[in-house]
UniProtKB/TrEMBL annotation:
Keywords: Membrane, Transmembrane, Transmembrane helix. SUPFAM superfamilies: Nucleotide cyclase (SSF55073). This is GGDEF domain-containing protein. The lineage of its organism: Bacteria, Bacillati, Actinomycetota, Actinomycetes, Micromonosporales. Residues 335-466 form the GGDEF domain. CDD domains: GGDEF. It holds the Pfam family GGDEF. It comes from the Bacteria. The chain crosses the membrane at residues 22-41, 48-64, 84-102, 114-132, 152-169, 176-197, 209-229, 250-269, 275-295. SMART domains: GGDEF.
Length: 467
């Protein structure tokens, strides 16, 4: 690719015939789908649909390039030409490939990534409209078919850019393949925009070698992405969520949000007419999107503060607050409040004998069974280590003991799968219930009952005499 770029730039200054001048470009254009196919067949990614779509897009693109060379050589430019239709088809195939990548890397709804991409899309769309589409559509010298054809390219480029931003701002593994693919798509958008802007400024077709060099570089980066062995892991999700408030992400969003007032100021300095309704609408939409993003960040932080990352249950902090609130409510209404403290029997032996990953799996399974077997309206939390608590409002001693026994049997009834081995897991449960309860006293009574259950041989539930 680099050799062909050097040849294209060098030959372009010698006055050589047109077909010789474009030969290096056509070599890169035709070689790109071959590179994508070779990389896909050699590295065998687990899901190949996106890469095959990408190869198909580049085949169609190369055919369109060949048809364009023929039209330029023969001087046929009745828009839209067959080459234009082939280019449009290649854009659609490219968008389909990127959509497949997004879907594989983000199986669920990644709303934060979608909002971020939409903010950037609105900002880029505003620039494309003001500096590309509006001058094209207002040029009275162009016939309608030419306006529609030339306007379609910036719109399709913008669509590809939006999907590229969505790809990089969503979840999924990072690495050279992602950045090569993003660089290729971003460079393609930049050179297509430069071609359109220069054509508007000159009022004629543009045949600059530096534009061909940029197109060739974009195609080369795309082929390099497919040849990289990282495509084997490209469609895998990352183990951890992306940092929602990373400096890079915030910087991109800040630039995008400031773009609308910046464009308005630049137009004012140039003495150009300012489209106040358009810019105002863009600012309003981006402002609302940023508010939605902030709401999502605050909600996620609150959820993380009250959710145990291992089990998905509530944290001790949340349980303590819920217990205090429920005790005050019970004191006013005069109903009973039940509390269970649940301890996994001999949990240290699980960690020592099978390793901490097996211990984590046991805790997750205990949490799942507690959530499935508890009453609606209660609060289930991981109290610390291998201890869990269940807060059961409006519960009497008989109901609470029956709940404790049911949960104990749920634990002992089926072994836990820890990576192929089946491990029998039991729990000891201390139960306490009180009317007009004091939180500390209720916790103390349940804790005493738990110690009694352990002393009696474990794998049993004991109701505190105070209840």
């Amino acid at each position: 690719m680099m050799v062909c770029v050097a040849l294209r730039v060098g030959i372009g200054t010698t006055g050589t015939s047109y077909l010789v001048t474009v030969a290096p470009y056509m070599l890169v254009s035709a070689g790109t789908p071959v590179a994508v196919l070779i990389g896909t067949l050699r590295h065998r990614p687990s899901h190949r649909a996106g890469w095959f779509l990408l190869a198909a897009a580049q085949v169609v693109y190369a055919v369109a390039d060949g048809m364009t060379v023929r039209d330029d050589w023969l001087g046929e430019f009745l828009e839209p030409t067959p080459a234009d239709l082939m280019y449009f088809a290649s854009y659609l195939l490219l968008c389909a490939a990127v959509l497949v990548f997004i879907r594989r890397r983000t199986p669920g709804w990644d709303i934060p990534g979608g909002i971020d991409a939409l903010v950037v899309a609105i900002s880029a769309g505003l620039l494309v409209w003001i500096y590309v589409l509006q001058p094209l559509t207002s040029d009275s010298a162009l016939p309608l078919n030419a306006k529609l054809t030339q306007s379609a390219y910036p719109v399709l480029d913008l669509m590809v850019l939006i999907l590229a931003v969505r790809l990089v701002m969503g979840t999924g593994t990072r690495g050279p393949v992602l950045w090569l693919l993003l660089s290729s798509l971003a460079l393609m958008f930049a050179v297509d925009t430069a071609y359109a802007v220069e054509g508007i400024a000159d009022g004629s077709s543009v045949e600059e070698s530096y534009l061909d060099a940029m197109w060739m570089t974009s195609l080369g980066l795309l082929g390099l992405a497919a040849l990289h062995p990282g495509i084997r892991r490209f469609d895998q999700r990352s183990d951890t969520a992306l940092p929602d408030a990373s400096p890079g992400r915030l910087g991109v969003l800040a630039i995008a949000v400031l773009m609308a007032p910046g464009v308005q100021f630049i137009q004012w300095l140039r003495g150009e007419p300012v489209s106040v309704p358009l810019i105002s609408a863009a600012c309003a939409v981006m402002f609302l999107l940023v508010l939605a993003r902030m709401y999502g960040l605050v909600t996620a932080q609150r959820r993380a503060a009250v959710t145990d990352s291992l089990t998905g249950l509530h944290t001790r902090r949340h349980f303590t607050q819920a217990l205090a609130v429920e005790c005050r409510r019970a004191g006013r209404a005069g109903h009973g409040v039940g509390l269970l403290i649940i301890d996994v029997d001999h949990f240290k032996k699980v960690n020592d004998g099978y390793g901490h990953p097996a211990g984590d799996q046991v805790l997750r399974e205990v949490a799942r069974r507690l959530a499935a077997g508890s009453r609606a309206g209660g609060v289930i939390a991981r109290y610390g280590g291998e201890e869990f608590v269940v807060l059961a409002p409006h519960t009497g001693p008989g109901e609470l003991y029956a709940l404790a026994e049911r949960l104990r049997e749920e634990m002992a009834g089926l072994p836990v799968d820890i990576g192929g081995d089946l491990l029998s897991v039991t729990v000891s449960i201390g139960a306490a219930v009180a009317v007009h309860p004091d939180p500390e006293a209720l916790l103390h009574d349940a804790d005493e009952a738990l110690y009694a259950a352990k002393a009696a041989g474990r794998n049993r539930a004991i109701l505190s005499p105070a209840g």
